[in-house]
Amino acid sequence: MDYQTTVEKWGVWEVSCAGTAEGNPFTQQWIRAVFTGKSETVEADGFYDGDGIYKVRFMPSFTGEYRFCLRASFLEQEQEGSFWVTEPAADNHGPVRVANTWHFAYEDGVPYYSVGTTCYVWELQSDERIAQTLASLRESGFNKIRFCIFPKHYDYNLGEPRSYPYEGTPMDSGVLTRENFIQYTGKTQGNHWDFERFCTAHFAHIEACVEKLQGIGVEADLILMHPYDRWGFSQMNEAQDDLYIKYVVARFAAYRNVWWSLANEYDLMEHKSIRDWERYAAIICQKDPYRHLRSIHNCIAFYDHARPWVTHCSIQRQDLYKSAELVSEWRMRYRKPVVLDEIAYEGNIEHGWGNITGEEMVRRFWEAACRGGYPGHGETFLADDDVLWWSHGGVLHGESWKRVRFLLRILGETPGLGLAEKHRSWDEVCAVPESFTEAERTGYHLFYYSFMRPSFRKFYFDDVYAYRVEVIDTWNMTIEEAGVFTGSFRVELPGRQYMAVRVQKA
Amino acid sequence: MDYQTTVEKWGVWEVSCAGTAEGNPFTQQWIRAVFTGKSETVEADGFYDGDGIYKVRFMPSFTGEYRFCLRASFLEQEQEGSFWVTEPAADNHGPVRVANTWHFAYEDGVPYYSVGTTCYVWELQSDERIAQTLASLRESGFNKIRFCIFPKHYDYNLGEPRSYPYEGTPMDSGVLTRENFIQYTGKTQGNHWDFERFCTAHFAHIEACVEKLQGIGVEADLILMHPYDRWGFSQMNEAQDDLYIKYVVARFAAYRNVWWSLANEYDLMEHKSIRDWERYAAIICQKDPYRHLRSIHNCIAFYDHARPWVTHCSIQRQDLYKSAELVSEWRMRYRKPVVLDEIAYEGNIEHGWGNITGEEMVRRFWEAACRGGYPGHGETFLADDDVLWWSHGGVLHGESWKRVRFLLRILGETPGLGLAEKHRSWDEVCAVPESFTEAERTGYHLFYYSFMRPSFRKFYFDDVYAYRVEVIDTWNMTIEEAGVFTGSFRVELPGRQYMAVRVQKA
Q: Which of A426-430, B178-182, B437-441 has the lowest mean pLDDT?
């Protein structure tokens, strides 16, 4: 038994334990431990990590001494030990939680304004590409990234991943071209996998990527299943699926920046039913001691986000024209945070989901944010090497990502936790603090004019307070003082698109 | 009795008749005539035109000899006469009719693709401004203009009109400012009108304007009532309203380019009920022998466009974001032509209905047109002299109007009469000829990509025919040959917004 004697709060503590490698340790053996500190008792399943080594991971939520008691099918008697949990490092705020009904905060109370991006299989690319992606993420403002544990088979994604989740061999992909790839979706002949033997290196590599994301303050929205498959990973049976879900939870749950996304486009997975999704969710709820955020993402039909296990809506827009504009409706319907995990991607590929302008992407970000929703980004620019950010990561080519960083700054300056839409005039979006107390105290209003080009706007709040007004150019990323006003006043605007006005009590 | 002995088909024939000027000729006298040609018998009401002169107008729909029989309250016996109807001039195609359920054609069968503009009271401006507006219209492609018979009181419209529809004196407008104008809406104190005595010069002037529009091929969409009033014209009683409607029909119906728009924003007219609108419509149906097009335009709630007297939907968009995109839904709902008489105006004023970009305006035009709807334009640019096209006419300052002319050219080249949306792929708008026979014969498809930027698109129609493909840049107004293809093919696109592809059998 080998384990750390100290770990920071919300860090990953791990114990390794030698056991048998005979038979199939993934299905025939088990290991788990109970952790007891002054303020919590937690039971966590461990997992087999190959070469006769078993591990249990734990994320402590409190400081001070913890004791643990470890049992395993291959151990004749339970093992005990203890370790010390230290204060978290300055950049460690704990896992992200739902806060204030429609918003998020880190467990230490620091607000978390989610602005995500999507790189479906960035972690299954070469080391160089992965390093490039991490550097791009560090420079950007994105604080969440969606990606898959399983490799992806789709347009612009015909190559083989760096590793597979199972022992075995894939079908011969030499016959694949951009013209015939669609025929291979759903056909899994030629693959030879043992769905009861995980390739531990595949998971260990993804864990390393999750840790690197944690190091740069990015949440890892782990997609457990998806339909874009030629290997058969979307067509396993119930027992195999459950084994997979449990294995993933045992390995990843101790990483504070993990979110569970049950699926990308669950409704395109024809071999899965609602019963299956509910069963996966039940396993996660039972096995994840830390209650990480849980969601499920649609292609066409929304999943019922009102289900108790769904912590937040993960939404792909249903309409070609309106997406972020519908956030207030969805917030009312589900009374949960609304995360827009696909509102089309900035780019120029042939598909309508991947060829909007940077301006339109940024507009959708502001439309969502000013309604108290959380927008997500992606890029799909044609490239000679077929490396598209949306799937492979790499370098950001678009115009929107810098403006997302600017939006994040604006969001970081809102009073209280989170924004909500206030209906004031039909031809603007008006955001106020979600908390009525904060709204009253600060008089904070953020007006957004989208594609409209007012040359001025008139305002009236009251005759009592003086209001400081700033004019924000959301595209050119400037903030200009417009003055301090009381009573009725008029604010001059440049008659351009994408302007905002921020008002606060002086 | 004084009358023309010849008139062209669909021209205005007129008879003048001296009568009494005593009492109130508008209410106490009447005049009407029955016209009989080989193919039609028409009864038309006349009107009092001041100075003891009464007139009856007639628009013949057939060539050859017509006889008429005139009666009036002030004539002891009926008068008779005849005149000759000649072939119409080359640019005279007759009145516009509904054709092919969702479209329009002139009575001679020439297709009419409506692309309108709005200048609410252009005809009540100075002679110089009116001449300027007519010159602008002639240069543009607009073939319909919406305007009001009553003057307009609204933001940027605080001046007095050149004339009033009634005898009397208006309130003192010297006290009006942009800040207080809203207080005068609904208040009519200080006006002194005789709502039973029309100012005939006001109407004669508007008729001259309608004739000038006719001369440049522009339909006059006459707005009979509207809520933007400080004179009390929106608050007359039933008898006064009915007198007005009858007077308007008697004066204007013989002009072939007249359309009846019962109201601009009927639902803001708080002194009128549905019963009133239905009564006005009944009067028009009864009194207009030529069955000119009839519609009624909303602010918020649509009128029930399914009403039998409504010939086409006159729609103001109900949603800030989606307007032209909903044309197919409205076509299905009402099974009538869908005319979008307000989808926001190109400009930079403070109001959201008047500050979209030229690009967005043109995008809405194409979204509407490719669904077989008929979009309308307007301009609201701030100007030192407060002359805004949307109300006053004058000079066009925007970027969209030239592109409307280009769209009209494309529409003029469609086979058959009118386009309809074909559902092919979710990320495009695909227009085909409304007529299945024409669609089959020509293989015509018009694909529009809106704000999307595909770098190429793939097509397949069949393995039999060769298709000629053109790439259309709807903003830069270019049409480029892309080649002739059979079977599956790929068309290269520039990866810019606002592109279209036109396909036809070679």
A: B178-182
> Is the separation of the CB atoms in A80 and A74 below 8 Å?
no
| A296, A299, A304, A310: CA torsion to nearest 10 | 10
Q: How far apart are CA B127 and CA B145, in angstroms?
A: 18
SS3 of B332-383: the string is HHHCCCEEEEECCCEECCCCHHHCECHHHHHHHHHHHHCCCCEEEECEECCC
3-class state of residue B502 by DSSP: strand
Report chain A's C-alpha Rg in angstroms: 24
Pair of tokens at residue A124 = 């299954």
Rg, Å, chain B Cα set: 24
pLDDT tens per residue, range B417-462: 999 999 999 999 999 999 999 999 999 999 999 999 999 999 999 9
Q: What is the mean pLDDT of residues A258-285?
A: 97
Chain A partners of B458 at a C-beta cutoff of 8 Å? 350
Q: Cα–chain-centroid distance for residue A434? A: 22
How far is Cα B479 from Cα B477, in angstroms, rounded to an integer?
Answer: 7
| Residues of A with Cβ-Cβ distance to B352 under 8 angstroms | 425-428, 449, 452, 454
Phi, psi of A267 (to 5 degrees): -75, -10
Residues near B99 by Cβ (< 8 Å), separated by ≥ 6? B105, B111, B417, B418
Give pTM, 2 decimals: 0.96
The DSSP code for A122 is G
d(CA B354, CA A449): 13
CA–CA separation, A196 vs B19, rounded Å?
105
Q: Which domains does chain A carry?
A: 2-86 (2.60.40.10), 96-412 (3.20.20.80), 419-505 (2.60.40.3950)
Token output for A2: 């080998």
d(CA B12, CA B4): 10
- Average model confidence (pLDDT) for chain B? 97
Distance CA B44, CA B104 (A): 25
Place of tokens 């990527």: A209
Give the C-alpha separation, B25 to A266, whole Å.
76
Residue tagged 């707005």 (tokens): B223
Average pLDDT over residues A111-129: 98
In B, what residues contact A, Cβ < 8 A? 320-322, 325, 347-353, 355-357, 360, 382, 425-428, 451-458, 495, 497
Answer whether B421's CB lies under 8 Å from B371's CB.
yes
- Secondary structure percentages of chain B, helix, strand, coil, to 5: 25, 30, 45
